[in-house]
Specification:
Blueprint lengths: L1 E2 L5 H10 L10 E4 L5 E12 L2 E10 L5 H11 L2 H4 L12 H4 L4 H7 L6 E4 L6 H11 L3 E6 L5 H17 L4 E6 L6 H5 L2 H5 L3 E7 L3 H4 L2 H5 L2 E4 L5 H13 L11 E2 L1 H10 L4 H13 L10 E2 L1 H8 L11 H15 L3 H13 L4 H16 L5 H16 L5 H13 L5 H15 L55 H16 L15
Parallel strand pairs: 5-8, 5-9, 6-7, 7-8, 10-11
Antiparallel strand pairs: 1-4, 2-3, 3-4
Length: 513
């Protein structure tokens, strides 16, 4: 016997709703739970008084005579990429760095010790598929929602069900939240307490960098698993499996594919299994007709089926920053081939060419510097040309500047010098301007001693050195490379003059010069 207050919440509602019309006795009373074939059966119902009912309750599933037929039709209508989703870890392709034999996530799953996790990576790499495999392996309940389709209200309902489930059944709930990055900060905060308390195991999937798009408190409660694009070999294996699988794939069509066509699909999809499988299905279905006894996919059919390669590039996301970083580091490392490739990827991805031009100007000053001062001139000329002529022709001056900078002598001495000087200004004792260097172009300056003792270098033999800083500190250290080799020799000579014992004192000269 269950008192209504002890029953699961969904059963409480039904018992309270129907207690007036249920007669005491042994006849079972059936009431739907919301599913098409799942019902609550109330037996031995006894109305104690209005609002209080005692009963036995259990769930049963009635055979839906059309259920299997409906399921079969739904599977047939699903695209190949959905039908061929791996059903187990053994079928799962890629991500061996965390799901391979002996790796962290596989060990957690095999021990049924799954914790909250964020799956982060490009589309078509298996984030949703792995979440569903986990649902099949885990003893926990599974709820799947898309962050773009639900709000706080729906999330609270899921969390309430999870609490009831753990209280009544002792089962935890795995909540798979696809496109987690679409939840704003306030929506993500709703999940915190229940994730913290272990009421739910959150599996979030996102194509955006979670360290930018997910709340730090939520990340601290989760493991982050980064998915990589599938290798060409992984995609080829998936396509072969789809061609021979008669139950879920295209095996019944007896289609075959040439090696060139297989490689073209695997390369052009850029590691996106969903796109490769979709192209394969298009290639097969588009050739099926009553008069054709066999289907052969050659390179031409494959190219037509996958159409133009899609460049995965988000001008405001990781790809933007990663490609820019690769471009600058390739220039710094004097690799013109790598630099020109990353430039091409940025342009093909739709990057603003003015952003690229600005990065080249910065690289010219930061990494080439005075080893080849012409580098800054070339970079600035490319930036001006980019603003003047625009795409597509501005790719030419950008390419010229990229190659010039990559092949130029390198020096970061100027970068190091300004960095060290600014650090001293911020953190050290502020150095006052020496009196003989202060401005003397106003009445009364001489009375304050400003400019007194300044020596005009052009009037001195060999460009006379004098004290210009007031403290013993060296910031600029030229290297023996490119034009800085000449500058280094000049500085050594000037500094040697400064240290000579016979350097004249700071007697008064012309303070106005």
């Amino acid at each position: 016997m269950l008192h209504v207050a002890e029953a699961p919440h969904s059963i409480q509602n039904r018992a309270a709703k129907h207690h007036d019309c249920v007669k005491s006795g042994k006849m079972p009373y059936y009431t739907p739970t919301g599913g098409r074939s799942q019902w609550v059966v109330l037996t031995d119902v006894r109305v104690i008084r209005p609002g209080v009912v005692r009963f036995h309750a259990f769930l049963v599933r009635f055979l839906d005579l059309f259920h299997e037929q409906h399921e079969r039709r739904r599977r047939a209508a699903a695209p190949l990429a959905v039908r061929m989703r791996p059903q187990s870890l053994d079928e799962f392709a890629g991500q061996s760095h965390f799901i391979g034999p002996g790796k962290l996530l596989r060990r957690m799953l095999q021990a049924d010790r799954l914790t909250s996790a964020v799956f982060y990576g490009p589309p078509g790499t298996g984030k949703t598929t792995l979440a569903r495999i986990i649902a099949n392996m885990s003893e926990a309940a599974f709820e799947e929602v898309n962050a773009a389709a639900v709000g706080v209200k729906e999330v609270r309902e899921i969390l309430e069900r999870a609490r009831r489930r753990i209280e009544v059944e002792g089962r935890r709930t795995v909540v798979f939240l696809d496109e987690l990055h679409r939840f704003n900060r306030a929506q993500q905060d709703v999940l915190l307490n229940d994730v913290e308390d272990g009421i739910v195991i959150l599996l979030g999937a996102t194509t955006e960098n979670p360290f930018f798009s997910v709340n730090t408190p939520l990340l601290s409660r989760s493991q982050v698993f980064q998915f990589e694009s599938l290798s060409v070999e992984d995609v080829e294996n998936l396509l072969r499996r789809a061609l021979v699988d008669e139950d879920r794939g295209l095996g019944q069509t007896k289609a075959t594919i040439t090696d060139d066509a297989l490689r073209h699909l695997a390369v052009s999809c850029d590691g996106d299994a969903r796109r490769a499988l979709t192209a394969l299905e298009v290639a097969v279905r588009s050739q099926l007709d009553e008069n054709r006894t066999s289907v052969v996919i050659d390179a031409a059919v494959a190219a037509e089926s996958i159409q133009k390669k899609v460049i995965r590039y988000d001008a405001g996301g990781d790809e933007h920053y990663d490609a820019a970083s690769a471009l600058i580091k390739s220039i710094r490392g004097s690799d013109p081939d790598a630099a020109i490739y990353w430039l091409a990827k940025m342009l093909e991805g739709g990057e603003d060419p003015r952003f690229i031009a600005r990065r080249l100007v910065i690289a010219a000053a930061e990494d080439i510097g005075n080893a080849d001062p012409q580098g800054l001139v070339v970079a600035q000329a490319a930036a001006d040309a980019t603003s003047f002529i625009g795409l597509p022709e501005c790719q030419l001056p950008l390419a010229q500047a990229t190659i010039y900078l990559a092949c130029a002598e390198k020096s970061n001495s100027a970068t190091s010098a300004i960095g060290a000087a600014r650090r001293d200004v911020r953190e050290g004792r502020t150095v006052p301007v020496p009196r003989h260097l202060r401005c003397a172009h106003y009445a009364g300056a001489k009375q304050l001693g400003h400019g007194v003792g300044y020596r005009y270098p052009h009037d001195e033999p060999e460009g006379m050195m004098q004290e210009y800083l007031g403290v013993d500190r060296t910031y600029y250290e030229p290297i023996e490379r490119g034009d800085e080799e000449r500058m280094s020799a000049y500085l050594k000579r000037i500094r040697a003059l400064q240290q000579r014992d016979d350097v004249p004192g700071q007697e008064e000269q012309n303070p106005s010069r």
